[in-house]
Specification:
The protein is of the alpha/beta class. It has 10 helices and 11 strands. It has helices at about 10-30, 45-60, 75-90, 105-115, 125-130, 140-155, 170-180, 195-200, 250-255, 270-290, and strands spanning about 5, 35-40, 65-70, 95, 160-165, 185-190, 205-210, 225-230, 235, 245, 260. The longest helix has 23 residues, at about 10-30. Bound molecules: 5,10-Methenyltetrahydrofolate (GUE) and magnesium ion (MG). GO terms for molecular function: methenyltetrahydrofolate cyclohydrolase activity; methylenetetrahydrofolate dehydrogenase (NADP+) activity.
C-alpha cells in the first residue's frame, strides 16, 4: 500500500480563509483587529520554528501580532508581570506563552496566571478542566488540528483504536481527551511505555508528538493505519546545508509505503497548528467582545 499524504497546508489554507472572513467581520463590528500575543523565553528550537511561521500568518489573516522575546534568564516575577499586563490589555485577545520554559522558571505558576478567556493554548487549569468535563473550552492547537484532520478524512471515528504517543499538557493529554470525545478507544504511550511497537500494532489511528526524530518505524504500523505526526525536530546540518532539516517523530520514508495515510513534516500537522491558533484567537476575541461564537469554525 502507498499512503495518501495528508496535505496539512491545503487543509490549513481552507481554514485560514474562513478565519480571514471572521477576522474582517470582527474588525467591522469592533473597530479594531483581533490580537494575539506570543511570549518566547529563551531559544527552544521547536518554539523558534513556531514563532517564525506564526507572526506572518497572523498578519495575513487580518489580525495583530504582538511578540515578546525574553532572555533565558528572565526572572519569574518579570514573566508573571508580563502575563498580567497582557491579561489586562484590551488589544490582546489571545496569549500564548511558548513551552517549554527554561528550567529556572516555574512553568505551572506562569500558566496559572494566564486569563482562561485568552488562553488560546488551552493549558490553564480552567480550560483543561472544561475539556475533561465536556464543557466548551479553548483547546490546544495541535491536538485540535489533528482531530479536525481526522474528522475531515474519516467522518465518524467511533470505535477506532487510537494510540497517542506523548503525554504533554499541550499535546498528548488533550489529544486523548478529544479522541475519547469522538468515541475512540484511546491508549496513551510515553517514554516509559514498555513495548511501543506492540502497543502501536493494533492502532487504526496513531498520533505522535514527542520530539524524537524517526522514533516510530514503518513496520511498527499496521497497513490500514492513519498516522498524524506532530513532531518538529531539527536534525544536525548535513555537509553543505546551512541548517538541518525539520523532521517528525515517524520514519516517514518507511511508513509512507506501508500505511493508509500519513502527514508529512513539514506541511502536515504543524501547518494546521498555526491555522488552529488563529481560529482559537478569533473565537476568544468574539467571546470576549460579547459577540458569541463565530459560526462555521
Ligand atoms: N505554548 C506552546 N504552544 C505550542 O503550540 C507550541 C509551543 N508552546 N512550543 C513549541 C511547539 C512547536 N509548535 C509548532 C507549531 C507549528 C509549526 C509549524 O508551523 N510548522 C510548519 C512549518 C515548518 C517550517 O517552517 O519548516 C510545518 O510543519 O509545516 C512548528 C512548531 C508549537 N508549539
Ligand atoms: Mg513523554
Amino acid at each position: 500500500m502507498t499512503a495518501v499524504q495528508i496535505d496539512g497546508k491545503a487543509f490549513a489554507a481552507k481554514l485560514r480563509e474562513k478565519i480571514g472572513e471572521k477576522a474582517a467581520a470582527f474588525t467591522d463590528k469592533t473597530g479594531r483587529k483581533a490580537g494575539l500575543a506570543v511570549v518566547l523565553v529563551g531559544e527552544d528550537p521547536a518554539s523558534q520554528v513556531y514563532v517564525r511561521s506564526k507572526g506572518k500568518a497572523t498578519v495575513a489573516a487580518g489580525m495583530e501580532s504582538f511578540e515578546y522575546r525574553l532572555p533565558a534568564d528572565t526572572p519569574q516575577d518579570e514573566l508573571v508581570a508580563l502575563v498580567r499586563k497582557l491579561n489586562a490589555d484590551d488589544a490582546v485577545d489571545g496569549i500564548l506563552v511558548q513551552l517549554p520554559l527554561p528550567k529556572n522558571l516555574d512553568e505551572k505558576a506562569v500558566i496559572a496566571e494566564i486569563d482562561p478567556d485568552k488562553d488560546v493554548d488551552g493549558i490553564t487549569p480552567t480550560n483543561a478542566g472544561r475539556l475533561v468535563l465536556g464543557m466548551d473550552a479553548l483547546v490546544s492547537c495541535t491536538p485540535l488540528g489533528c482531530t479536525m484532520i481526522l474528522k475531515d478524512m474519516l467522518g465518524d471515528l467511533s470505535g477506532m483504536d487510537a494510540v497517542v504517543v506523548g503525554r504533554s499538557i499541550l499535546f498528548g493529554k488533550p489529544m486523548a481527551q478529544l479522541l475519547l470525545a469522538e468515541n475512540c478507544t484511546v491508549t496513551m504511550a510515553h517514554s516509559r511505555t514498555r513495548n511501543l511497537p506492540e502497543v502501536l500494532r493494533r492502532a487504526d489511528i496513531v498520533v505522535a508528538a514527542v520530539g524524537v526524530p524517526f522514533l516510530i518505524k514503518g513496520d511498527w504500523l499496521k497497513s490500514g493505519a492513519i498516522v498524524l505526526d506532530g513532531g518538529i525536530n531539527r536534525l544536525d546540518p548535513e555537509p553543505g546545508e546551512e541548517k538541518g532539516r525539520i523532521v517528525g517523530d515517524v520514519a516517514f520514508d518507511e511508513a509512507v509505503g506501508h500505511v493508509r495515510a500519513i502527514t508529512p513534516v513539514p506541511g502536515g500537522v504543524g501547518a494546521t497548528t498555526i491555522a488552529v491558533l488563529l481560529r482559537n484567537t478569533i473565537v476568544a476575541a468574539y467571546r470576549n467582545a460579547g459577540l458569541g461564537d463565530p459560526e462555521g469554525l
